From TrEMBL:
Residue ranges of domain GDPGP1-like C-terminal in the record: 249-398
Compartments where located: Cytoplasm
Origin organism lineage: Eukaryota, Viridiplantae, Streptophyta, Embryophyta, Tracheophyta
Chain ranges of the GDPGP1-like N-terminal domain: 71-242
UniProt main location, coarse: cytoplasm
Cellular component GO terms held in the UniProt record: cytoplasm
InterPro entries reported in the protein's UniProt record: GDPGP, GDPGP1_C, GDPGP1_N
Keyword presence, Chaperone: no
GO biological process: glucose metabolic process
Gene Ontology MF terms in the entry: GDP-D-glucose phosphorylase activity; guanyl-nucleotide exchange factor activity; hydrolase activity; nucleotide binding
Protein family according to the UniProt entry: Belongs to the GDPGP1 family.
UniProt keyword annotations, A-Z: Cytoplasm, Guanine-nucleotide releasing factor, Hydrolase, Nucleotide-binding, Nucleotidyltransferase, Transferase
Organism: Cuscuta campestris
One Pfam assignment: GDPGP1_C
Protein name as catalogued: GDP-L-galactose phosphorylase 1
Amino acid sequence: MMLKIKRVPTIVSNLQKEDGEDGSVRAPGCGRNCLRPCCLPGSKLPLYAFKKLNHCKTAEEDVEEPPVAFLDSLLLGEWEDRMQRGLFRYDVTACETKVIPGGSGFIAQLNEGRHLKKRPTEFRVDQLLQPFDGNKFNFTKVGQEELLFQFEASDDGTQFFPDASIDAESSPSVVAINVSPIEYGHVLLIPKVLDCFPQRIDRDSFLLALHMAAEASNPYFRVGYNSLGAFATINHLHFQAYYLAVPFPIEKAPTRIVTTAAAAGNVKICEILNYPVRGLVFDGASSLDEMANVVSSSCICLQESNIPFNVLISDMGKRVFLLPQCYAEKQALGEVSAELLDTQVNPAVWEISGHIVLKRKEDFEGASEANAWKLLAEVSLSEERFREVTSLVFEAIGVAEDKVHGGFPLSKKPPPPDVETQHMEDEMDSLVGAHPAMVPV
Ligand SMILES: [Zn+2]
């Protein structure tokens, strides 16, 4: 049996067509200023080359001034420029956002523009690895005006070239706007865009995403990933990222250590506690490479086992959340309540992390911590399934549950959310000032 769900696809590029088709290959200069051979020759795009480090940044290295401030000037500056040029489908800065009262601090956004004028499309949700299909929408078809800069590793320290050529031979990694942003500075990182990788994690691409989080050098800039079957809608390898100046509930959830096995290097693997979605947290790596090795191997295991998952890269690449999920599968099997389906919320990485984008005013107005828990509890694997999945992952990466730390405790349901309003006012305040000063490039 093939499992499919119907959902309204999110438009991430202005060149994305309703039917995912855009006709046959055109003559040179197709008129769309795209990234294919018709339009690419002679194109230029700023290039930010980051310094490869084989350890986590020390405090000294952190104060080294890069040639351009990666987050404030380059990423947010270029993003602002595209906003001024009217490339977004709506003004995300005008969307209402609030922190939902309660101990978890879920963040709700009312975003009525994101899914307007779109018909639901069928998505196959039971096959995590699917071959790249050049006939469907992919990022080689975006207009070059949607690209912000090239992002590459450099052996010679951090460098910035405002007017670099796009070298088709080397297939650059690029950062582009998401034309349906869910927050300020919402961008896509597309590793080796011209190589046309399908949506699946590999070590080098994951390392690149970690570097992006590290270069931003700001804990409020997060990078996320959705696998196919876990609400990715485009089968062309991409990460998402944006800036939001409040802690995400998942980042505040307590954790307990599950293993520190030698095979994971210095990486500690923990499980999330007191949170509606079960997941693993990786931290304590002595380098981004070490983190990339452990997390990408875990993701590859999930991919090969056909288990949909989401990833949140937090704290400048020092913490990574790995969240296997089963919502789309339940939806396809008719096991999700009509009440939840009616909200049309797609629980991808941001929702799971606690930033919930709502499409209907009534859901926004009635948003409560209990409702957020109810939704996310449907996303989570069951206790039993989570144990099976983590065993698979640990086996794949060659670690054992740590006897010293007792491994996983026996079945324990997450406690219900406690109602506590401590820090709420602070968070409300920081949300009001969440958008940093805009620095033109
Ligand atoms: Zn073209």
